[in-house]
Design brief:
The complex is a heterodimer of chains A (416) and B (382). Chain A is an alpha/beta fold. Helices cover 45% and strands 15% of the residues of chain A.
Chain lengths: 416, 382
């Protein structure tokens, strides 16, 4: 081994060290440029990430995006996500989010609070045309952020065959809590499980709305979980569970209420309009009808679920992205989506056309008038997951303690 | 030359080595032979050091930084605007009375029970299987070896899905129990702790009305009663699955070690009058000690990191009784956008694993004051 070799070796080691340090603080990890150049008009290249419900939705959105692209001379690439929450999280962290993407109502506040969304809601034509409950859902700190894509509400689904078997008629469909209890007792007496209800706040929460309560105040700033209204709702649900008048899907060996209902393990379930597609695909022989949820002490109440078309605050083509959303939320386009994959238009001007074409869905659409959206506050995901845990044990714990825990956690998350 | 180059690599390269060496050596006219050899050694291992540094050490350090910040997942965590919170994320997991600590402690409780059951069970089962398939009297040994090893080579996700079917309320297990007139539990919906059930069955406490002494307080925000729940019924299904799938791999390791033991040793002990069990206990088992340490350590690391079964089968449900720190870390970071607390959980997990591995090493160390001087010959290997 000569000295020359040795020197080479030293240089090699030095080069390795350089490589390591340069990798450590290379261009990949710091602020690349002060901010991408913004283009306000002209053709754009839009990346659109959708949390698709299936092939039907992907195809329909692709067709609509192509039509928009052709008319504006832009390109629009629609990508269906495998797991949109995770993919968006990674995209935001990596500083290259898609221009337009679905934002689930339950995660909306998380995105809005960290400044990921462009608050463009009022720049869409005729924003008042969206149902008020949906606009509230996508309003954060007084700003209407993004246009609701479509929506679903919960309704009471009744199995007509089991209904007849128990000697019940159309007039027996419950419209109040009292009727729900009495009709359930009649079904149970015939050996039929009356009601399958999902074991989360997304189903049981409807009872809280019917009792006049909710987890947070309407502006999402205060925790109102331990109110007497909420206690009344959970006590009622508990009475149904204890009397075996209502069962959770898992107890009926099903993944969700619709599956328990499709297997005819329960005469009623509380689900949204997505159940139509599921029943058609998996249980085509089940005969059912849809009714509005029974009213509680404070009147009718249901929950709404929705997505909005989020526009990234970091997009290079914000104006074109808003133009794209404009095209996607036109009443005609929403009707086209409704036909393709069975969602309900978020614009009130499309309501008449929709109920004319899908009369069986009227109870779902009517729900929009009195629906409560998901909790509209950031950092609530783990709190609500904890509440779900409480609901799962509702049959054996006291509703007051479940709500007290929810109140404590919500206050901590909201910082009050 | 071969010896000298592999030397430093096997000894675990300290990171500051090459720089320090290269910096002050050139001043000297000649390098000693030892220094030259060590330099050449570093050169040879340099590619691996670079790759490990780039893809292992660097990401870990980046994650460590994230765990000290309140980064919200927008843009790079290395920008100036990212709030630095020091050890707050760690402190929250242990000191503050809120949901984050409660979730973390619940996941710790679940995982402790999981480790306490899975590690001994899979080790004993693997050893037993290895002894069986190593027996010269067994017919069709190759078949059994393959059969026992088979679960280990199947994807854990696929097996998890199969278990979901087997343990469904109308599945095979419930059906089998029904044949014997037993009404099986609703496996994946059952959040009752098995220790609670056991205490209830023995009549010591009533699980529906636990004594106030246990429910009133306890360490880290969970009551003693909650700490003493034992794994839930839902968790036991995951335990069964993991024991079944991993024991095949560990069986293979034990088998290799068993085949290394000279037959003459066993024969000698037999001639000395040792029985079958004595031979196993005092000859075979001590020879297996290094393998036992390997299996226990690998088992412990894997069980503390359990993730995919939870992700596929239960997502932490029912009632958070299958929540584990690894899954909680993922959920906190990627579902709630709380990347700081999420990475903090994973570093706490890292520390737990390292500490436990060191404890295990200390417990299983070779004691020089061996009771049987005759067995000294075996020590040379260790």
């Amino acid at each position: 081994m000569t000295r020359g070799n040795l020197r080479n070796a030293a240089f090699g080691a030095l080069a390795c060290a350089c490589l390591l340090t340069s990798a450590a603080c290379g261009s990949g990890f710091d602020d690349k440029q002060a901010g991408p150049a913004r283009q306000s008009d002209g053709p754009a290249t839009l990346q659109i990430l959708i949390g698709s419900s299936g092939d039907a939705e992907t195809t329909a959105v692709r067709a609509a995006a192509d039509a928009w692209a052709k008319s504006t001379g832009s390109t629009a690439t629609v990508t269906p996500a495998q797991d949109i929450a995770q993919q968006l999280g990674q995209a935001f962290a990596g500083d290259n989010p898609p221009d337009v993407f679905y934002v689930d109502a339950s995660r909306f506040a998380d995105y809005a609070s960290v400044g990921a969304l462009e608050p463009y809601g009022d720049r869409i034509s005729d924003p008042q045309d969206f149902y008020e409950s949906l606009r509230t859902t996508f309003t954060y700190d007084g700003k209407f952020y993004c246009a609701p894509k479509d929506f679903s509400t919960l309704a009471l689904i009744v199995n007509d065959t089991l209904w007849k078997k128990a000697g019940l008629g159309d007039a027996d469909v419950p419209t109040t809590w009292e009727q729900l209890t009495s009709v359930s007792e009649k079904l149970a007496a015939k050996g039929i499980t009356p009601l399958a209800v999902g074991d989360t706040r997304d189903r049981v929460g409807a009872f809280m709305v019917q009792a006049g309560g909710w987890i947070t105040s309407p502006d999402g700033k205060r925790a109102t979980a331990d109110s007497s209204e909420n206690a009344k709702a959970l006590e009622y649900v508990q009475s149904l569970l204890k009397g075996k008048l209502a069962r959770f899907p898992k107890q009926l060996d099903a993944g969700w209420g619709g599956e328990a209902f499709g297997k005819e393990k329960a005469a009623m379930t509380i689900e949204g309009n997505w159940i139509k597609g599921a029943l058609k695909a998996d249980f085509p022989d089940v005969k059912y009808s849809v009714h509005e949820l029974p009213a509680g002490p404070k009147g009718k109440g249901t929950l709404s679920f929705t997505n909005c078309w989020g526009v990234s605050a970091r997009s290079r083509y914000k104006e074109q992205a808003i133009g794209f959303v404009e095209a996607m939320t036109k009443a005609d386009q929403q009707m086209a989506f409704a036909r393709a994959f069975g969602v309900m238009p978020s614009r009130q001007s499309a309501k008449a056309a929709y109920t004319a074409e899908f009369p069986g869905d009227t109870p779902f659409v009517n729900g929009a008038e009195y629906a409560q959206g998901p909790v509209n506050a950031p950092k609530m995901e783990s709190v609500l997951a904890d509440f779900d845990t409480g609901i799962q044990q509702l049959a054996s714990t006291s509703p007051a303690s479940v709500l007290a825990r929810l109140q404590k956690n919500t206050r901590a998350a909201l910082g009050n | 030359m071969t010896d000298t180059t592999t030397g430093p690599a096997a000894g675990g390269p300290p990171a500051e080595g090459p720089g320090a060496d290269g910096a002050d050596r050139p001043r000297r006219p000649r390098l000693s032979a030892a220094a030259r050899e060590s330099l050449a050694g570093w050169l040879f291992v340099a590619p691996v050091v670079v790759i490990l540094g780039l893809f292992l050490l660097l990401p870990i350090l980046m994650a460590l930084w994230v765990s000290l910040t309140d980064w919200n997942g927008q843009g790079s965590p290395f920008k100036p605007g990212v709030p630095f919170v020091g050890l707050d994320n760690y402190a929250r997991l242990f000191t503050e009375d809120d949901l984050a600590r409660q979730d973390f402690m619940t996941s710790m409780r679940n995982n402790i029970y999981y480790v306490l059951i899975v590690v001994p069970a899979q080790t004993v089962l693997a050893l037993g299987l290895a002894v069986i398939v190593n027996s010269r009297l067994l017919k069709g040994r190759t078949f059994f070896r393959a059969a026992f090893f088979f679960p280990s080579v199947t994807s854990s996700v696929a097996i998890s899905v199969v278990f979901l079917f087997i343990f469904a309320n109308s599945g095979a297990v419930t059906g089998l129990l029904a044949l014997f007139g037993i009404r099986g539990p609703q496996w994946f919906a059952d959040s009752r702790g098995t220790l609670h059930l056991l205490l209830g069955a023995l009549g010591l406490v009533d699980p529906n009305a636990p004594p106030a002494a246990l429910t009133d307080g306890g360490p880290f925000g969970l009551s003693w009663w909650e700490w003493l729940s034992g794994p839930s019924v839902a968790m036991t299904t995951i335990i069964m699955l993991v024991v079944w799938t991993t024991s095949g791999t560990f069986m293979l390791m034990f088998l290799a070690a068993l085949q290394d033991i000279p037959v003459t040793l066993e024969e000698a002990s037999r001639l000395d009058g040792a029985g079958r069990w004595q031979t196993f206990r005092h000859v075979t088992l001590p020879m297996l000690k290094p393998t036992l340490f390997l299996v226990l350590t690998l088992g412990m690391i894997a069980t503390w990191q359990v993730f995919d079964q939870v992700y596929v089968m239960s997502q932490g449900d029912p009632a958070k009784t299958t929540l584990t720190p690894a899954y909680l870390s993922y959920k906190t970071a990627f579902r709630n956008f709380e990347y700081g607390p999420g990475t903090a959980i994973s570093f706490v997990l890292f520390v737990i694993i390292v500490v436990l591995a060191l404890v295990q090493r200390w417990v299983l160390r070779d004691r020089d004051a061996a009771p049987r001087p005759r067995r000294r010959a075996g020590k040379v290997r260790a």
